[in-house]
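Protein details
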Amino acid sequence: MESTRNIAVILAGGVGTRIGLDTPKQLIKIAGRPIMEHTLALFDDHPLIDEVIVLMARGHLDKVHEIVRKNGFEKVKLVMEGSGTRNDTTQVALNAISEQFDEESNVILHDAVRPLLAPSIINDVVLALETNDAVDVAIPSADTIIEVEPGTGSYPVIKDVPTRANLRRGQTPQAFKLSAIQRAYALANQDPNFEATDDCTVVLRYTPDVPIAVVTGDDSNMKVTEPIDIYIADKLFQLPARNEHAVTEEKLKSALTGKTVAIFGGSYGIGADIAALAADFGATVKTFSRSTTKTHINNREDLVAAREEIVKDTGRVDYVVNTAGVLPLARLEDTSDETIYEATEINYIGPILLAQTFYPELVKTQGSLLLFTSSSYTRGRGNYSLYSSAKAATVNLTQALADEWANEKVRVNCVNPERTGTPMRTRAFGEEDPNSLLESKTVARASLEVLVANKTGHVIDVRREDPLAGYADDVG
């Protein structure tokens, strides 16, 4: 018996009115890509999704086609114009599905402006549809919810305070058996006063005999609606992908076997651990550094020579990693010209030259460039002025290159490890309690996962379990 087809419907009919932009909010860029692109990637990549339909705001369908074409989103089969209301737009999609398929289908409706949906939630929704005709996604309310009514004066007054334990905050996706959601809308359309803000409400009001199962969502599955949401979502993309499919040993081996990884600053610390781990997973690894190969990251001739050596030996460059850096600690007025130029050239000019030098080879393999920053990029710190400013520049370089290289499918990301036990850190701060530091091998594993992932323009934090640990001086 064939399994039921899972069809994702991406609802993108809204515009950026509250955000204050003429561009639809789903086309605003976050973490190097339009919001819509992040959302489509989630569903196109998910193994349980068979087909994707997009309902887009009028006048912007060409942009969706461009995103689909650029990324090769093979599951996106139909891009249609949305209708008047959210409910009207849903019905356009339902009618399209009915015309395309005679058999029962699972319809999974998701807001395009929720780009941080965890793949595990899609798993849970599809599983719930095996025994239910309607499924919602919701999270407990951390706030007390009050019900108000008009007061005698200028202010509303509290009418009731529902028990918080019974309250949830609704999210998407909302999912249904096609026949169930069609029956609910058929009855709703007979009601001259029909009005609903979401699709589960339609089922609840017009087919109350159909139970709606509730799957637990996630706080990060936020909806980008207000101006501040853009900033919050961008920051959330920097957090470790704790809800994504685990990158197993098998997946890393599959991604790295037969590939060539070039690591600069690979003689010790994080770079050396990345090199060893990548080799264990089947990659051909080439490491370069000042101490072992006399390769200076801030010298274009050295980088060109490294590139030519790699291509001659292996014929390809799939991944490039830069962990080279220096950490001068001093007040700026006490810093010599020599130190200023050296630190700026190694920490900032070096990554620029590296990107320029290896771009042609990465285009050939549709490869990936990985850079490193530190938490000091978020705010300059006293005695760290050269280091902090270079790390902030590296983050902006990452995001800019991700945008520039997107059409060539070359990915650029940045890892932000918390305080990590490395020789560079020991030289700067002396011996420290090893229990207070992140292990270099942990950062190496996370770096490889980012390196092979289908994401670009991201700044990924690598932290211990304590989310507040390491904010004093996060230097790798």
Notes: DSSP finds 14 helices and 17 strands in the chain. The first strand starts at residue 5 and ends at 12. The two ends are 54 Å apart (CA to CA).
